[in-house]
């Protein structure tokens, strides 16, 4: 029968081009060999709807495991930070009440001071000194100059540093709105985690701010757009320190990135020019990154002449809003020494130099408040809340003033 025929032997003179048939595995050996355990390596699966690939980790029993183990123990520092955040959130309503009380107390104090000024015959002087922000904004002069806050370093900062940067941006807006000579103010690369915080935690209050632009584009594209914004007369007037520069042409302007690592020193601010300030709070972990980025993009660089005018008793570190305020003050007084002395915090012990000696420079957006590790989260959050409150008050006052003007214009017609 066919079943009883023996298997043919392989010929010894077989052609070398043909490969011998591999011997069949003995089923008895396969059954007795140990079965390997299931692998815990990620198994790749594909979603038929959107063709996206996901990785699932399987355990020894074949069930998928969660890659984020919620039962992992937290470090003591992480627990402290979490506890501080929880305490901060619990006290939110209480802070609102205290804030209203402070506002009411300030109003009452202002009324009392006004009454004293009336009695002393200096009411006009008092009202001018305490003029509201919308009136200052309306009377303030817009100059053909742009300040860009470069926020492209979002991924290099941790949460508390982004909170600190957020408060610095807010104060920069408030300072520019109140300045007698203000600039075009731009926040570039506003498209990452910082924007997410402004949209969620801060409830998009920045959308009501006036006199500032938030752009997703980077500082190079923002600087190109600024050339159109600064066209006179709508883009600014030649007044103050620019009064004798009316013959300046738009093509005479320049784009300069401020960096402490630059070999060049800024001597003056020029019409139709754009000055870029790095929005980075990183405790100097990424030193030189602003300068490197500017050089790679072909942008001029310069540093503020702090070391030529001021002798500092501590580190020469400036926050982003301090740099903005110094430049606004220079537009007002035209003197770097006076600008530095009026803006730089007194705790730094800065004194004017009689002559040029040691050179110094500001840091790229580094905030001196970052010195302390413990407890700085609450301080940053408190500072941010106060800055946001101040900026929102400015925006609300401006909006109310515009509405009043619209009503007056309608009644006049």
UniProtKB/TrEMBL annotation:
Biased composition (Basic and acidic residues): 1-17, 85-94, 102-115
Composition bias, Low complexity: 51-61, 388-397
A Gene Ontology cellular-component term: cytoplasm
Compartments (UniProt record): Cytoplasm; Nucleus
Catalysed reaction equations from the record: guanosine(9) in tRNA + S-adenosyl-L-methionine = N(1)-methylguanosine(9) in tRNA + S-adenosyl-L-homocysteine + H(+)
Positions of region (Disordered): 1-115, 349-413
InterPro entries: MT_TRM10-typ, MT_TRM10-typ_sf, tRNA_m1G_MeTrfase_euk
Residues annotated as domain SAM-dependent MTase TRM10-type: 133-351
Main localisation: cytoplasm
GO MF: tRNA (guanosine(9)-N1)-methyltransferase activity; tRNA binding
GO terms of biological process kind: tRNA N1-guanine methylation
Documented EC number(s): 2.1.1.221
Annotated keywords: Cytoplasm, Methyltransferase, Nucleus, S-adenosyl-L-methionine, Transferase, tRNA processing
Ranges annotated as biased composition (Acidic residues): 361-387
Described function: S-adenosyl-L-methionine-dependent guanine N(1)-methyltransferase that catalyzes the formation of N(1)-methylguanine at position 9 (m1G9) in cytoplasmic tRNA.
Subunit record text: Monomer.
Protein name, as recorded: tRNA (guanine(9)-N1)-methyltransferase
């Amino acid at each position: 029968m066919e079943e009883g025929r023996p298997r043919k032997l392989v010929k010894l003179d077989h052609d070398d081009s043909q490969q011998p048939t591999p011997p069949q595995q003995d089923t008895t050996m396969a059954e007795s060999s140990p079965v390997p355990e299931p692998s815990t390596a990620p198994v790749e699966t594909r979603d038929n709807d959107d063709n996206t690939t996901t990785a699932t980790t399987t355990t020894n029993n074949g069930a998928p495991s969660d890659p984020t183990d919620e039962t992992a123990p937290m470090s003591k520092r992480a627990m402290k930070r979490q506890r501080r955040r929880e305490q901060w959130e619990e006290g939110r309503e209480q802070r609102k009440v205290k804030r209203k009380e402070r506002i009411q107390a300030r109003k009452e104090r202002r009324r009392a001071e006004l009454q004293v000024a009336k009695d002393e015959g200096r009411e006009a002087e008092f009202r001018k000194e305490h003029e509201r922000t919308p009136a200052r904004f309306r009377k303030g002069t817009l100059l053909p100059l742009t300040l860009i806050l470069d926020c492209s370093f979002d991924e290099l900062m941790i949460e508390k540093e982004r909170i600190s940067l957020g408060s610095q941006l807010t104060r920069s807006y408030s300072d520019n709105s109140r300045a007698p000579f203000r600039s075009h103010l731009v926040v570039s690369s506003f498209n990452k985690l910082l924007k997410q915080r402004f949209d969620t935690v801060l409830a998009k209050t920045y959308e009501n701010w006036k006199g500032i632009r938030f752009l997703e584009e980077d500082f190079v594209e923002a600087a190109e757009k600024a050339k159109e914004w600064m066209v006179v007369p709508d883009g600014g007037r030649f007044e103050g320190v620019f009064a004798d520069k009316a013959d300046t042409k738009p093509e005479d302007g320049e784009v300069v990135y401020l960096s402490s690592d630059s070999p060049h020193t800024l001597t003056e601010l020029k019409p139709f020019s754009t000055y870029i300030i790095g929005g980075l709070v990183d405790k100097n972990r990424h030193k030189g990154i602003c300068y490197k980025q500017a050089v790679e993009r072909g942008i001029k660089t310069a540093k503020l002449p702090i070391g030529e005018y001021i002798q500092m008793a501590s580190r020469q570190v400036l926050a982003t809003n301090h740099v903005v305020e110094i430049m606004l003050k220079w537009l007002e007084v035209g003197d770097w020494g006076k600008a530095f002395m009026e803006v730089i915090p007194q705790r730094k012990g800065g004194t004017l130099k009689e002559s040029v000696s040691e050179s110094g420079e500001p840091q790229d957006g580094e905030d001196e408040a970052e010195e302390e590790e413990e407890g700085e989260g609450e301080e940053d959050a408190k500072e941010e809340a106060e800055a946001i409150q101040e900026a929102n008050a400015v925006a609300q006052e401006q909006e109310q003033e515009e509405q009043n003007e619209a009503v007056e214009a309608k009644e006049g017609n």
